[in-house]
């Protein structure tokens, strides 16, 4: 299943940063995105001409803490396992530091952070028919990933994020799962696809997750005080019926209980 098969998918994330040059260079050089537009205070990066990451420069913004609500990671979904292998080979060659690597049963994932501490996942999905299920939910795990096996899958060198790369999901830190679940499942309409200790995974149209929430670092967190670095907005893309329903209820945007803003536009 491609995320584009869902009635709603992730379009972009907007991040507030202190150093636009340094962070922008990271998304170009390490993640392999193309620069789509840039001025003194804002830069946009993406694939196939579509913006995936928007950076807003604010040198006066408060530095967000690890224990606050907000971004856990932005997850870039590559089209094939060979692409993940090519990126991993490039990371080894350049000495880019990974913070983790996991087999999640539905996917294989690599973890790192940008220069200002915004979490990043780079992953590939297994075929939908291979996703394990139990009791109506998708089973996910955090198992060891065989990095050498992934690297051996590469069919050539990494040449930047390939055509078809998207933000597959955005994982968020919240203060509590109880108020988070009604917002994401009922207000946004993203079904609970899986539960994990301290985390819920929400998706549209049967995808394992477009959005996730956890309290691993942020249990008890209150609404974030702005302006602050980190996640400012998650932009969703939707089919006409879902877009019309969102616009009728919320207008241009809606925020979760911790101040994370969601907008929605047409696919």
From TrEMBL:
PROSITE patterns given in the database record: VOC (PS51819)
Protein name (database record): VOC domain-containing protein
SUPFAM superfamilies for the chain: Glyoxalase/Bleomycin resistance protein/Dihydroxybiphenyl dioxygenase (SSF54593)
VOC domain: residues covered: 9-125
Organism: Thioclava pacifica DSM 10166
């Amino acid at each position: 299943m491609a995320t584009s098969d869902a009635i709603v998918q992730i379009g972009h994330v907007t991040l507030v940063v202190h150093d636009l040059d340094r962070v922008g260079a990271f998304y170009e050089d390490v993640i392999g995105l193309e620069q789509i537009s840039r001025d003194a205070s804002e830069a946009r990066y993406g694939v196939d001409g579509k913006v995936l990451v928007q950076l807003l420069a604010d040198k006066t913004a408060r530095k967000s803490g690890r224990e606050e609500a907000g971004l856990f990671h932005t997850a870039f979904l590559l089209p094939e396992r060979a692409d993940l292998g090519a990126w991993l080979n490039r990371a080894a060659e350049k000495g880019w530091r990974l913070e983790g690597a996991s087999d999640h049963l539905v996917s294989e994932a690599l973890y790192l952070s940008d220069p200002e501490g915004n979490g990043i996942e780079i992953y590939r999905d297994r075929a939908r028919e291979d996703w394990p299920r139990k009791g109506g939910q998708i089973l996910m795990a955090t198992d060891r990933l065989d990095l050498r096996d992934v690297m051996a899958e590469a069919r050539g060198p990494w040449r930047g994020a390939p055509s078809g790369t998207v933000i597959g999901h955005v994982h968020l830190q919240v203060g509590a799962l109880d108020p988070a679940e009604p917002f994401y499942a009922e207000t946004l309409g993203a079904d609970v696809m899986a539960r994990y200790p301290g985390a819920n995974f929400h998706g549209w149209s049967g995808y394992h997750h477009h959005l996730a929430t956890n309290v691993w670092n942020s249990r008890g967190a209150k609404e974030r005080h702005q302006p602050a670095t980190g996640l400012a907005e998650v932009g969703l893309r939707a089919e006409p019926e879902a877009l019309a329903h969102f616009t009728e209820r919320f207008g241009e945007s809606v925020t979760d209980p911790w101040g994370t803003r969601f907008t929605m536009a047409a696919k």
